[in-house]
Design goal:
The structure is a homodimer of 397-residue chains. Chain A is an alpha/beta fold. Chain A is built from 14 helices and 14 strands. Helix content of chain A is 41%, strand content 15%.
């Protein structure tokens, strides 16, 4: 076991015992439960056939419980970025001004999307690892009451930060501005109650807390969005949520949906209801606490000032090569974690506990992190991370 | 067995033998081969991990064989309509004029897409069931040499017509206009050689001839498209093919791709190569001939003047309720075929032989059609359809 092993040799060798098995602790895609795999393996449902409307209705009602919200939920064949684009295209005109509050790679995507459509962006950017200060939203709106939409991120996947959507929403409660939130990596791990947080439109995607493969975006859409939609002049066809509203109310979709993911979602929703959705959120909280406790016990720093329960971004000491570490964990332990993005490439591991992860899974991830770190020369008490995780997992809630 | 059975009773009863099994003969989704199901059931590939670039490269090279083309092929997380929208957004400006030649529901989608983006459409529409006369393209371009793009459909899924893309391409060979073709239901069933047909951009999707679930769109893009892209001012982010070109050349994608479909596509491409891609096209031709022969033997009319080998649209006599017929075939025989779309709802069955369908499969479809027709009072010699199909399937090629 050495970090110096060449890639070619690695591919042939696998783990020391000769067996290769992969465990995903990446913040999307996440592990697919066996029941969900089975549900997806059947003959695809014909989207013009008699079984489709009930499948669609089941998905919508289940997602309303998961967000939670009573608003309409629409399903689109796309990634998270696609449904984010739909949020922009349905609420704005070229030349409109919008506020983006962000502190990471996915927050910055709102800015890129708005600019691609000719929307003028007022951006309030915070350093990676910090949470957006909700007061900047109040200030920005005071300076420019013409801001039509405020875009924010709930769980920022590049930094592991949970932004304070509730406080931002409170500030927006007596304004005309719409509040649009990226819940791609938060939904399923944290509640995102749209009405209580004054969120008008929230988006998420299939491959995170919803335990499905990537390929389906979801948008929860409140009543104020339709007024904005009415005046929006941005060109849209595939992203036109009005068409989804019309079609889905009739049990159809305006474009072919990924029907195998819908069949999988039916099984996912059943699993989430069996566990109890509040308990699913508690599980994510407990698992994230365990990972954070392990990192601290290993002498490492949690990057996020206000950590998300979806994933933990762990900053590595300068002496540790993060790319080699994650590759080692994957190759030798079968534990796949995310690396750092952007300027944090090689300086971070991102350990996700999203979705189909149980307590033993958390211990697998932590033990692999320890084994990997031992190769790097980083000094710590072997087993300390696993012990901290065990303590956190067995502590009385 | 009666057409009068109520839906509620049907759901509980299934077929007379009490067993329910579904066989798809719908023009998308199509049956998923067992090998492909297995390939998709594994742990999802992490799109930022070391296995992803090879998976992506394999997909691109295989699709180049299937179209066939030497042009770049890009993969997008979307339905066929989504990748059609990408074709519009990357080649035009608002106010540009484009020609749409169409004769069916999916051909008309080009018009809707262009208009949604403020493109001025010159439309040449033919009655459903007819093929576009390529000469109208020459005339339209003579009348208006400023037409920047010609949009056409290869296999029109609503009518079962194969449009003469080669002849349209020949007319376009000495013009500046780009040629963009919807190959959603043709690719895999018919060759669509982009270079030989002067096609600059062709799109297809996963759930037709490619034997995958819905959720992935593909665009084959020739060199002249990039010049049009350079002057195109239509807003785009998710659909920006330039971003796909940059990312995919580095083994990445600008948005999360449906990695399970990519894993499935690897298995699909292996199957297509084992059979031999020209033989796959021949199989589709032979199967479509068999279905057409059966329809004639049953006294029914094939709707398409110039039939596609992807599906056969069969016009029903006025006395036959097509909705009840397809529902009966599904319920009692487990054979799912498409019904008529638009004004042909209830007046047509569309029997698809796309993808994972063998000779016995064709006989299943035809025998179910016969059983269904027997309930309707339509008079024909029982077994005549099956006999005609057997004759066609066993005839020396």
């Amino acid at each position: 076991m050495s970090l110096k092993t060449s890639p070619a040799r690695v591919e042939n060798r696998g783990s020391p015992c000769g067996l290769r098995r992969q465990r995903l602790f990446t913040p999307g895609p996440t592990p697919i439960p066996e029941r969900v795999q089975t549900a997806m393996a059947g003959t695809p449902v014909y989207h013009r056939g008699p079984e489709f409307p009930a499948l669609l209705r089941n998905a919508v009602e289940g997602l309303q419980e998961v967000f939670p919200t009573s608003y309409d939920v629409f399903l689109l064949s796309c990634s998270g970025t696609g449904v984010m684009e739909a949020a922009v295209a349905n609420t704005l005109c070229a030349g409109d001004r919008a506020l983006v509050v962000q502190a990471g790679q996915f927050g910055a995507r709102w800015t890129d999307l708005c600019r691609a459509y000719g929307v003028e962006v007022v951006e309030r950017e915070f350093p990676w690892g910090e949470a957006v200060d909700p007061q900047v939203v109040a200030e920005a709106l005071r300076d420019d009451p013409g801001l039509r939409v405020v875009f924010a991120t709930h769980s920022e996947t590049s930094t592991g930060v949970l932004h304070d959507v509730a406080s931002i929403g409170e500030i927006l409660s007596d304004t005309e501005a719409l509040f649009v939130v990226d819940g791609v990596s938060s939904v399923g791990a944290h509640p995102l109650p749209l009405e209580a947080c004054n969120v008008d439109l929230a988006v998420t995607a299939s491959q995170k807390g919803l335990m499905l493969p990537p390929g389906m975006g979801m948008a929860a859409v409140g009543p104020r969005v339709w007024k904005a939609h009415g005046r929006s002049r941005l060109p849209k066809f595939y992203w036109n949520l009005e068409d989804y509203r019309t079609s889905m109310s009739e049990g159809r979709a305006p474009a072919t949906l990924p029907v195998t993911l819908l069949a999988g979602l039916r099984a996912v929703l059943q699993m989430l209801r069996e566990e109890g959705i509040p308990r699913v959120w508690e599980r994510h909280a407990r698992h994230a606490r365990a990972v954070r406790g392990s990192a601290a016990a290993l002498g490492l720093t949690c990057f996020a000032r206000r950590p998300s329960n979806a994933l933990t971004a762990i900053l590595l000491p300068g002496s540790v090569d993060g790319v080699a570490l994650t590759e080692y964990m994957r190759r030798e332990c079968g534990v796949v974690v995310g690396g750092g993005l952007g300027e944090y490439r090689g300086r971070m591991v991102r350990v996700s506990n999203l979705g189909y992860v149980d307590d033993t899974g958390i211990l697998e991830a932590v033990t692999a992190l320890e084994i990997g770190l031992r190769q790097t020369g980083w000094e710590f008490e072997a087993g300390a991370g696993v012990k901290a995780a065990q303590d956190a997992l067995t502590a009385e809630g």
